[in-house]
Design brief:
about 100 residues, mainly alpha, 5 helices
Length: about 100
């Protein structure tokens, strides 16, 4: 899947929305789709400046966009939960991260 497809994927967006709701209830600032998109775009800009190939930049945008999905499960260890969700999630099951 491409970054554009990931940004529109309902399963991924549901994880992001649930994570943002969980964090909001705990008093955290925005971790919504807007935050995820900003992380993805900034990460891509950094890789572009260092001359990385487009394939790597595309993957970094996907990972940047999905970096907080583990918050849908728990804030503590959200990186590990996020990785688990990526591996079981239909749109990203094929990614090698």
């Amino acid at each position: 899947m491409t970054y554009s497809e990931i940004r529109k994927n309902e399963e991924v967006l549901t994880f992001i929305k649930k994570g943002n709701a969980n964090l909001g209830a705990m008093g955290f600032t925005d971790h919504s789709e807007a935050h995820s998109g900003l992380v993805a775009e900034r990460a891509a800009e950094i890789l572009k400046k260092f001359g990385y190939p487009e394939k790597d930049i595309e993957l970094m945008k996907i990972v940047g966009f999905m970096h907080d999905i583990g918050n849908a499960v728990n804030r503590s260890h959200h990186a590990e939960y996020g990785l688990s969700l990526i591996h079981i999630s239909e749109p990203t099951r094929h990614l090698r991260i």
